[in-house]
Each structure stands twice: as structure tokens, then as C-alpha cells.
Amino acid sequence: MNNSSELKKSIGFFPALALVMGTVIGSGVFFKVSNITEVTGSGGLTLLVWLIGGIITICAGLTAAELAAAIPETGGLTTYLEYTYGKFWGFLSGWAQAFIYFPANVAAQAIVFATQVINLFHLAPTLLIPIAFVAALSIYLINILGSKAGGILQSVTLVIKLIPLILIIVFGLMQSGDVQFSLFPAAGANSGLFTAIGAGLLATMFAYDGWIHVGNIAGEMKNPKKDLPAAITIGLGLVMAIYLLINAAFLLTFPISGLAGNLNAATDTAVKLFGEAGGKLITIGILISVYGALNGYTMTGMRVPYAMAEKSMLPWSKQFMSLTKAGAPWFSGLIQLMIAMIMVSLGAFDSITNMLVFVIWLFYCMAFVAVFILRRREPRMERPYKVPLYPVIPGIALVAGVYVMINTLVTQPVLAIIGIAVTLIGIPVYYYKKN
């Protein structure tokens, strides 16, 4: 290990595109269908929620890409908020990401990975935590070899993970199930339309999440001002198309009653389409998809504490800045791995992911507002990329984000309050370090 703080510029366009798509396409596309169909109670509303979620995410990505290109520094969201609002908000967003958001994402992906391994090989449920730990540890060990190693793994898993997606889409769309898409569908009997849309969007936001975090490695990209916005926008457009198609395939293959609340919906669909043997092969592809998402969150997440430590924002900043010879922030990654393993032993998949979405969208909305602030405050700032149709697209992203958060506060107040409380724990840490 060494303490050099010089990150290497080794990431090109395709690894960045793979990071966007690979981090976004993970467990959510396969395992949120159960939650979304359960809260919507309607095939048409399920597809509409995925469509709305995709449009919101593209608007968010187009908006955030302006910040990423104008401020191409390692740290991503944390750096954008600090530049716009000052050190306190930069620290708080970094704290939430470094010690809540990324570790919890790693925990959620590891839980899903372990659950599917247990189901695939008919292992004892008591092995969930050990398998989750081994999965997360193996990804950490790969990433301390440097960003190039993590980028290669991300590129490889992206290609492999598209195989089960494409097969399920192609063969699923040939099924004779009855699903109708409408811009004005009705909700199921268990909830009202707006409540169902809000709860469904909360779930889709997790499935679409990951798009902004490629900005965390901007300082290691060869040409961030050109490649970063392109990777975000092209990647998200492709992801939305994939999500709509695969959910249509799910709905054509199974009645909504067979999908709602069924965490094994993707595996059951694969078995129905391809038989037991084929279903197992597809499940292995799904495992690789989740493993790639786990890599994406580990690779980008470990760089947030590093960026904060560079600015002396954390206790033990020298340790958080420790790099391997290959230039990977090994200590930051180790701390996040330890927190993730604690979360694995405490939380359920949906509870963890819903809290994550609520907390991170608080800061996403601040980033959307930052685009307006900087346009007015620094009109001559160099902007290699500008969000199109300004201010409409940033406005859509902001309004949608506020709607999702308000809906969460109303429908899941305990979850929202816990997320806020854990985030606010960072405040005394900030003032301790400041003094």
C-alpha cells in the first residue's frame, strides 16, 4: 500500500457507458417487478410507472450531466453540491453517500446475490450472510487492483448480463398473455391511483438508480467533458427501453397475480420459458448481472470518502486517502465493506432500497436546483455540455423528485424519518472536523 493521492486517468467512454448501464441494470430490473406489480395491481399501470420512471431518470441524467461536464472532478454529487452550496452541504451529501447509500446498496445487492445462489443450488438459508459476505469481499479485492480492473469487470458483466435480458425479452414477448398499455390506466383495488404511482415510482427509482455515480470517477476519465454526458444519456435511454420490454415480457408470461409479491418472478419466468435447465442458465446470467451491479457500487462508492478526505472533511483523512500501488482507495472501500456487512445482518431488501431512494433523492433535487443557481450565478462558466430544453427538463426532474419524496413521507413516514435521522448524524461529525 502507498499513500499517493494521484488518481490515474485510465477510463474511456465504453467503461463509463458500461458503468452507467452496469450499475443501473442490476437487481432492480429482476426483483422490483414483484413490488411494483403489488402496489399498482395493474399490468398497464406497471408499464406506465416504468415509463414515467425512465423519463424522470433521463431528465435527471441530462440535468446532472451539465454539472458533471462543468465540474469534472472526482467526487461526483458531493463535489457539485459543495461547489454550489458550500462545504456543509457537500459534506452532508458525501456523508450520506459514503456511509449510508453506497454501503446499503452493496448490502442490498449482496443479499439478492446470496438469495439467488441459495435458490439455485438449494442451499441452507443460514448460508445467506456468509455468501453475501464472500460476494462483497471478492468485488472489493478486485477493485483494489485499480479502476482499470474494476472497469474491465464492469464491461464484461455488462455484456454477459444482457444475455438473460435479451432472451427473456425475445421469448417473453412471444407469449400470449393479455397486457394492455394505457396512458390513463386504473390502479388495483388496494390503493388509489396517485398512491399507487408514487409507491411504484419509489421502486422504479431504485431500479433506475446508479446513473449519477459515474461522475464519481470523472477525475479518472481520459476525456470527461465529452465522454461523461454521452455515457449518462445514451446509457439511460438504452436502460429504459430494456426495462419496458422485459416487464412487458414478464406480464405476457405470467398473470399479475403470479408476479405480485413474488421475489422469484424472474427465475419463475425463465423456467416457464426455457424449462428447468434453461431456467438455471438464465438464473446464472441474472447472478452475473447482480454481481456487476455490486461491482459498480463498490467501484464508484469507495471514491466518495477519498474525495472527502482530499478536502480534509473526514476524521482520519490520511487513512481514507490511502491508495494501493494501482491507485485504488483501499481503506475507503474497506470501511464501506464493513458497514455493508452490518446492514446485511440487519435489513430486508425492500426496506433498505426504499430508504436509499428517499435519502439520495433529497440530494439529487439539490443538484437539479444547482443547475438553475449556477446558470444565474456563473453565466460565463465553461459548460462543454448544456442540458437541452432548459429549464423544462431540469424542472421535470425536480418536480418528479419532490413528488416521490412527499409521497414517501406520507405513505412510509417511519422509513423516511429513519433515513433523515441517519443522514443528520453527519452534522456533529462535520462540526467536530471543522473545529
Automatic annotation (TrEMBL):
<keyword id="KW-0472">Membrane</keyword>
<dbReference type="InterPro" id="IPR050598">
    <property type="entry name" value="AminoAcid_Transporter"/>
</dbReference>
<feature type="transmembrane region" description="Helical">
    <location>
        <begin position="152"/>
        <end position="174"/>
    </location>
</feature>
<feature type="transmembrane region" description="Helical">
    <location>
        <begin position="412"/>
        <end position="432"/>
    </location>
</feature>
<feature type="transmembrane region" description="Helical">
    <location>
        <begin position="228"/>
        <end position="254"/>
    </location>
</feature>
<keyword id="KW-0812">Transmembrane</keyword>
<feature type="transmembrane region" description="Helical">
    <location>
        <begin position="387"/>
        <end position="406"/>
    </location>
</feature>
<feature type="transmembrane region" description="Helical">
    <location>
        <begin position="355"/>
        <end position="375"/>
    </location>
</feature>
<feature type="transmembrane region" description="Helical">
    <location>
        <begin position="327"/>
        <end position="349"/>
    </location>
</feature>
<feature type="transmembrane region" description="Helical">
    <location>
        <begin position="186"/>
        <end position="208"/>
    </location>
</feature>
<feature type="transmembrane region" description="Helical">
    <location>
        <begin position="120"/>
        <end position="145"/>
    </location>
</feature>
<dbReference type="GO" id="GO:0016020">
    <property type="term" value="C:membrane"/>
</dbReference>
<keyword id="KW-1133">Transmembrane helix</keyword>
<protein>
    <submittedName>
        <fullName>Amino acid permease</fullName>
    </submittedName>
</protein>
<dbReference type="GO" id="GO:0015179">
    <property type="term" value="F:L-amino acid transmembrane transporter activity"/>
</dbReference>
<dbReference type="Pfam" id="PF13520">
    <property type="entry name" value="AA_permease_2"/>
</dbReference>
<feature type="transmembrane region" description="Helical">
    <location>
        <begin position="88"/>
        <end position="114"/>
    </location>
</feature>
<feature type="transmembrane region" description="Helical">
    <location>
        <begin position="45"/>
        <end position="67"/>
    </location>
</feature>
<feature type="transmembrane region" description="Helical">
    <location>
        <begin position="281"/>
        <end position="306"/>
    </location>
</feature>
<feature type="transmembrane region" description="Helical">
    <location>
        <begin position="12"/>
        <end position="33"/>
    </location>
</feature>
<dbReference type="InterPro" id="IPR002293">
    <property type="entry name" value="AA/rel_permease1"/>
</dbReference>
